[in-house]
Amino acid sequence: MKTSTRVFYKDTDKMGVVYYANYLYWFEIGRAEYMRSIGCSYKELEEKNYLMPVIEALCKYHHPATYDETIEIDTSIGSISKLKLRFDYKIFRKDDMKLLAEGYTIHAYVDRNGKIQRLPQHLIDLLNSPEDNNSKSFLNN
């Protein structure tokens, strides 16, 4: 799933390049849009008492992004189980599709009390087959 955003002045450091932690923020944008695209926003997950905290993150930086560039965030599922989910990300400069950064985040499933829980099979199915989800929704299950 691909989404785009612009590099804002606030995203850059004194050297005029994007501050490294902002790439993790862009991972979050990609992840939230991915979930929304399959019919299951984070808000809907939370309403069903499923929280997905990040338990591991990695970002490899290849080339800097700079102010006012448009970037494209390519988000996909790396792996999924009943207890954990891995999202993979690639961030490109949209003008020339140069790979700027890539990485992943791993998420556990917990309830509001922080207790680990298993993800229901119908949500695993939604996550595994995003192209088939035009008529599916987590809320309908």
Summarize the structure.
The protein is α+β, with helices and mostly antiparallel strands. It contains three helices and five strands; from the N terminus they run βααββββα.
In CATH, what is the class? Alpha Beta
Q: What is the succession of H and E elements?
A: EHHEEEEH
- What's the name of the CATH homologous superfamily? Hotdog Thioesterase
Helix fraction, binned, reads 10-25%
Q: How much strand?
A: 25-35%
Q: How can the largest sheet be summarized? A: 5 strands, antiparallel
The whole-number mean of residue pLDDT values reads: 90
Structural class per helix/strand content?
Answer: alpha+beta
Strand order of the largest sheet: 1-3-4-5-2
Question: What is the fold-level CATH name, i.e. the topology?
Answer: Thiol Ester Dehydrase, Chain A
Query: What general outline do the C-alpha atoms trace?
Result: elongated
Architecture (CATH level 2) name? Roll
Instruction: State the domain count.
Output: 1
